[in-house]
Here is the input.
Amino acid sequence: MGNPVAKARALTSALGSSTLVGRARGFTLIELLVVVALIAIGTAIVTLALPDPWTTRLEREAERLVAILESARAEARVSGVPARWEPTLEGFRFVGLSEKLELPTRWLHERVSSEIVGARAVNLGPEPLIGSQRIVLRIDERSIAVTTDGLAPFAVESGAAP
Here is the structure.
């Protein structure tokens, strides 16, 4: 009849085996719903973390304008001529500076518009103290401001423009 211990081990190992007999393999509906929910939450977090491309473009335009205005302001001081910056329908222009400077006259993106708060032009010099000035750049409903107190360099304003 054989060894009863060997038979007992065989039965135990057969009953304790991890193979599923008579049961379908796969995921339950609850497990699938949990995975889908986790993917949805992860996607939402990533989407909210991405910056708005139009806001990024507007910030880039403001930083570019700061650099251009500071270059023109320095040139006005060095040359000793009155200079100003004016917005136009196509972009902007510099009045009083030499054409040899070849300063830009257009925005990087055609949807950008600008408005000088309380004036028609921004005074750039030649005086070192030019007075407080504010330029608001817009793309659709988004806006950002470039300001100076007249003594400090132009800078992008950190808060939202009205």
In short: Residues 53-156 form a domain with the minor pseudopilin epsh fold fold (CATH 3.55.40.10). The mean pLDDT is 86.
